[in-house]
Structure formats: C-alpha cells, structure tokens
Design a protein that fits this description.
By secondary structure, the protein is mainly α. The chain has a single domain, classed as Orthogonal Bundle (Tetracycline Repressor, domain 2), CATH 1.10.357.140. Helix content is 72%, strand content 0%. The chain is built from 18 helices and no strands. The protein is globular and about 55 Å long. The protein starts with 10 loop residues before the first helix and ends with a helix. The relative contact order is 0.12.
Length: 314
C-alpha cells in the first residue's frame, strides 16, 4: 500500500478510531488520504507531545535561560511533536498484533489494515527527517544526549512483554528531554538536572499508571503487562507514592539552586494539583482515568512556572 493510498472512512469510523481524540473537527478538514497518517502519529491527541515537551522546558527554565533561549524552547516543542509522532508510529509497528486484541487500540490505522507496513515505515522515516532538523539546533553535548535516547525509545514497546513496569521505562523515555535541555543552555550536566530528571521519571510512572487503568481488563486478556495490573486495587496508593517521590526530587533540585524555603513555595501549585489527581481518582472509571491523565499537561505547566521563578532568581 502506497504512502498516500487510503480508502476514506465514514465520519463515524473516524470517531471509532480515536475515541479520545481532541481534534475531531480538524480531522474532518484534512484530505482523506492524510487522515490515517495523522492518526498513526497521534497528532489528533496532543497530550503526548505536551508531556514529552515539558521536562525539556523545565530544564531550560531551571537553568535560568528561559528568557534568552526562548527559541530553543520552541524548537523543543516542535521536536516533541515530531518525535512523539515518530515514537507512536514505531510503537504501532511493533505492537500491531497486540493492538488488534485490545478494544481501545484495535481500530488504529496499522492494526486495522488502513495503512500497510511499508507505508508506516516510510512515514516513520519522514518524521525522523523532521526530527533531524530540530536536532541540529542544539549544541554538541545536547545533540549527543538526544541521539542516545534512540535505544531507550526503540526498546520501550517490548517492555510490556517482559516487565510489569513498562511505565518505568516510559518514565526514562518521556523525561529524557530534561537531559537534553539542560546541556543545551548550560553546556554540561549538574546535580539539579539529574534530580529534575529523576522527579520527572516518577511523575511519568504515576500518570501513565493512571492511563493504564483504562485497559486493565483488555491487557489481562491480551497478556500485556502494566503497573496498573501489578498494583491492582493499590493503584491509587502507587500513583500517590510516585508523585510524592517526584515532588521530593523536585524539592531537592530547586534547593540545589536556591536553598531557601521561599523558593520551594513555587512547587506548591503543582504539588496541590498532583494531590487532587490522587484524591479524586476513580480507578474503576476509564473516563475519569483519561481526564486525570490529560490534566498532567496543566501539572507540567505549573512545574514550568516553578522552574521559571527559581531559575530566574537563583
């Protein structure tokens, strides 16, 4: 099947493919031949790009360069959109057989046969070329660090087959931008960066466990492992633990730069938001789990503001 060969779906079919899409209206304005590729890269669901973007923006802000390197923040935003899309395409290539066995993913373009395997690989290559344009905007240390993430990204789809905690591996992948953003503006690596990264890893484990609550029954039938299944009825407590560790790491990161209690007050908004997520989470309600997961884009913004304040005054 060629890259642009596609039989246009009916409107209700598009709805079925992306039940949690945020951009259904835009989807209908795209040429019919483009729609399955847009869906395959999850461009209709920007939450993933936001979550990939925030740790890099935090690092630039906490390093004190948000104002003078705002252009780099924008480049990281573009990179997050493109590389998250590439990661989704690769993930669906690897998981196409598993996806057919899970209700929420069975209608994805590759699993459903709307896109052929060769076309999916071609689309992945094009997205990586766009990612290369972003890569050359960074200095050597940041660029090498970014390229080093490829191995972790490539291994991620297989984690759900070999460990009950694929969310921990995703935490490394989705926090990697912090390891890129810091040297991109500071030229090297510092303890505050590693603490920021560690906190992000636990934040990702927490919110992706919430996301995995939607698929517990289907995952069990398909033999897919997840932290939500591993924690079972203790899922809320597990998410709470991850968020507590994340806040603890972020406190230590901010303290490295500004050892004052007033500086730590910048974390209160994001801390309260994460407490709200855990306190109000209904683990048996897929709709609530999705809403709580999506709310982490706002948590990322609150954390960015905390890093911005401390980085600018350190």
């Amino acid at each position: 099947m060629g890259l642009l060969s596609y039989l246009p779906p009916m409107a209700d079919e598009v709805e079925e493919i992306v039940p949690d899409s945020e951009l259904r209206g835009l989807m209908r304005h795209l040429p019919a031949a483009w729609r399955p590729y847009w869906l395959l890269a999850r461009f209709d669901r920007p939450i993933g790009a936001w979550l990939l973007f925030w740790p890099g923006a935090w690092a630039i802000a906490l390093a004190g360069h948000a104002a003078d390197r705002w252009d780099l923040i924008l480049w990281m935003g573009l990179g997050a959109v493109v590389m998250r899309g590439a990661g989704c395409v690769y993930n669906d290539i690897v998981d196409r057989d598993l996806d057919r066995r899970v209700a929420r993913t069975a209608a994805r373009p590759l699993a459903s046969g709307r896109i052929g395997l060769k076309a999916a690989w071609t689309w992945l290559g094009l997205l990586c070329l766009f990612g290369l344009i972003v890569l050359v905007q960074f200095n050597l240390a940041a660029a090498i660090t970014a390229v080093a993430s490829v191995g972790a990204v490539a291994a991620y789809p297989f984690m759900k087959r070999i460990t009950w905690w694929p969310q921990a591996w995703l935490g490394i992948v989705f926090s990697w931008a912090a390891l890129v953003g810091w040297p991109a503006v500071a030229g090297g690596f510092e303890p505050a960066m590693w603490l920021l990264f560690a906190g992000s890893v636990f934040w990702v484990i927490g919110y992706d466990t919430i996301y995995a609550l939607q698929d517990i029954e289907d995952d069990a039938l398909a033999g897919v492992k997840s932290s939500a299944r591993a924690l079972g009825r203790h899922a809320r407590g597990g998410v709470g633990f991850c968020y507590v560790v994340a806040i603890g790491c972020w406190i230590a990161a901010l303290w490295q730069l500004r050892p004052q209690l007033l500086g730590l007050a910048a974390l209160l908004p994001v801390g309260f938001h994460l407490v709200w997520q855990v306190a109000s989470l209904r683990a048996d309600d897929a709709g609530d789990a999705l809403a709580k997961f999506r709310s982490n884009r706002f948590a990322g913004l609150l954390m960015f503001l905390a890093c911005l304040v401390v980085g600018a005054t350190a």
